[in-house]
């Protein structure tokens, strides 16, 4: 007697954050006969939004576009607190009965594709018990983002152990940290730092943002009055399409303006800051970056809360370099010493490609830097594989949804034509290959060499441009000269 050897699932999705939940929805809705599971190494959904617990954590994109198109954002806040976003994700899981597909405590460490069988074998570990298991699937979809959830970036500050107070990193925020009446120094000038300052200022004795160099800080409304009116008149479902189109147009317009007219936009952005801080505040030193707008992400602040906190005298900004930590604070290269009870190292994140999962094909490890991204969602030489990494210059989820749509269309095409495997083949020896991200941010520059690269023409380009991806992923054909399809093979018989 023989039995057919088949995979446990059609698709294994890795990660139960906003990307993985989006992929699960699309498979369940548009391919109801597809079997799938979502593998999550932690004990809760949410990814970034359940990992980070620091004060004031919030979105830095407007929620009508950061949220899903299939489940309109209904909260009045367009820039939402982390717990509201987490509630939204949980409600999405509940509404579409996705929870039955999620396996918690299932951290993926490695995955191998067997070209003979056309099957992925995925190795997982329970982080608590250490128990190892393997699962198999025809396709592997990674919704792991690019954060290293285990190790944030913390510079090696001189004499750090001399400091007599507490040093914390936002990614590892201690539960119940009491900063009431304390002197706090936040090291950093990015999105996390500008979030922490106003969120903590009312309780601290004083809080200081210490930055080595300034970032562009852009004030946006916490609530969108146009969106709230449209929702009231049309209802959330009908209004959602209009609001999303408006916000996409505004976001893309701002980015393109910064690219086309950097000097003008620099003047406008800095001028907008001058209007929101005290008359004699040194904007040239503290809010005038050395780089052009959008060479790094803009740090968004809702309703100018950072500037209001500075204007009220609750917070200070110091631009200088750190010489070393002291027992009572931080000694700067200028000779000034900042006294502190708590130092927050909002010094950024580490990037890690694909959740640090070791991919291999026929037991040969995949060298990610040697691969080339196909349509910014697949990798050359890696069969039956897709990933979702969102935009850096507009809402993350806009890209994720396009990837999920195209992935479902790809599966439909393969089923209709009897294909079992698909692999992108990069066979242009003269095409230049470029980094997946061209931002000058420190976290990008430190790690981008570990990531796959992009090409410079055809489906190998990676532009972080929503309108281009709509044409390519939503409306463009699945069939492409760069894709190699192979027929489904008869099930292997096992005696």
From TrEMBL:
Pfam families reported for this sequence: FMO-like (PF00743), NAD_binding_8 (PF13450)
Organism domain of life: Bacteria
InterPro entries on file: FAD-binding_MO (IPR051820), FAD/NAD-bd_sf (IPR036188), Flavin_mOase-like (IPR020946)
GO molecular function: flavin adenine dinucleotide binding; N,N-dimethylaniline monooxygenase activity; NADP binding
Protein's UniProt name: FAD-containing monooxygenase EthA
Organism of this sequence: Mycobacterium aquaticum
Family under the similarity heading: Belongs to the FAD-binding monooxygenase family.
Needed co-factor(s): FAD
SUPFAM superfamilies according to UniProt: FAD/NAD(P)-binding domain
Signal peptide: none
Keyword Oxidoreductase among UniProt keywords: yes
Keyword Hydrolase: no
Keywords for this protein: FAD, Flavoprotein, Monooxygenase, NADP, Oxidoreductase
């Amino acid at each position: 007697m023989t039995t057919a050897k088949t995979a446990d699932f059609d698709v294994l999705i890795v990660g139960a954050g906003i990307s993985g939940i989006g992929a699960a929805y699309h498979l369940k809705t548009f391919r109801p006969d597809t079997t799938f599971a979502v593998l999550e190494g932690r004990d809760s959904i949410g990814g970034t939004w359940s990992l980070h617990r620091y004060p004031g954590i919030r979105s830095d994109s407007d929620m009508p576009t950061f949220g899903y198109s299939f489940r309109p954002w209904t909260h009045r806040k367009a820039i939402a607190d982390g717990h509201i976003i987490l509630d939204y994700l949980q409600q999405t899981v509940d509404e579409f009965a996705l929870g039955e597909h999620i396996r918690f405590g299932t951290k993926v460490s490695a995955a191998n594709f067997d070209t003979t069988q056309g099957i992925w074998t995925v190795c997982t570990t329970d982080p608590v018990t250490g128990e190892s298991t393997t699962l198999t699937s025809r396709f592997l979809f990674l919704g792991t983002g690019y954060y290293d959830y285990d190790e944030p970036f913390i510079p090696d500050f001189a004499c750090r152990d001399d400091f007599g107070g507490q040093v914390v990193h936002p990614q590892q925020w201690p539960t119940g940290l009491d900063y009431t009446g304390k002197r706090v120094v936040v090291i950093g000038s990015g999105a996390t730092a500008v979030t922490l300052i106003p969120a903590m200022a009312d309780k601290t004795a004083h809080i200081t943002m210490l930055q080595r160099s300034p970032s562009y800080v852009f004030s946006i409304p916490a609530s969108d009055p146009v969106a709230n009116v449209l929702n009231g008149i049309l209802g959330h479902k009908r209004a959602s399409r209009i609001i999303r189109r408006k916000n996409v147009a505004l976001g893309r317009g701002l980015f393109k303006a910064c690219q086309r007219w950097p000097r003008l936009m620099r003047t406008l952005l800095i001028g907008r800051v001058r209007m929101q801080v005290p008359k004699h505040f040194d904007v040239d030193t503290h809010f005038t970056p050395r780089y052009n707008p959008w060479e790094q992400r803009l740090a968004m602040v809702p309703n100018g809360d950072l500037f209001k906190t500075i204007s009220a005298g609750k917070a200070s900004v110091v631009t200088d370099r750190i010489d070393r930590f002291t027992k009572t604070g931080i000694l700067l290269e200028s000779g000034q010493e900042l006294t502190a009870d708590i130092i927050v190292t909002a010094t950024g994140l580490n990037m890690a490609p694909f959740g640090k999962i070791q991919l291999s094909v026929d037991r040969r490890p995949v060298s990610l830097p040697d691969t080339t991204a196909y349509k910014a969602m697949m990798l050359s030489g890696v069969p039956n594989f897709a990933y979702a990494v969102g935009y850096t210059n507009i809402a993350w989820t806009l890209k994720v949804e396009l990837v999920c749509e195209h992935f479902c269309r790809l599966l439909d095409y393969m089923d209709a034509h009897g294909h079992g495997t698909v692999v992108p083949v990069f066979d242009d020896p003269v095409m230049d290959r470029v980094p997946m991200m061209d931002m000058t941010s420190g976290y990008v520059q430190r790690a981008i060499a570990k990531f796959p690269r992009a090409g410079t023409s055809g489906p190998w380009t990676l532009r972080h441009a929503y309108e281009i991806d709509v044409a390519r992923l939503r409306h463009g054909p699945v069939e492409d000269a760069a894709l190699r399809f192979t027929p489904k093979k008869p099930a292997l018989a096992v005696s």
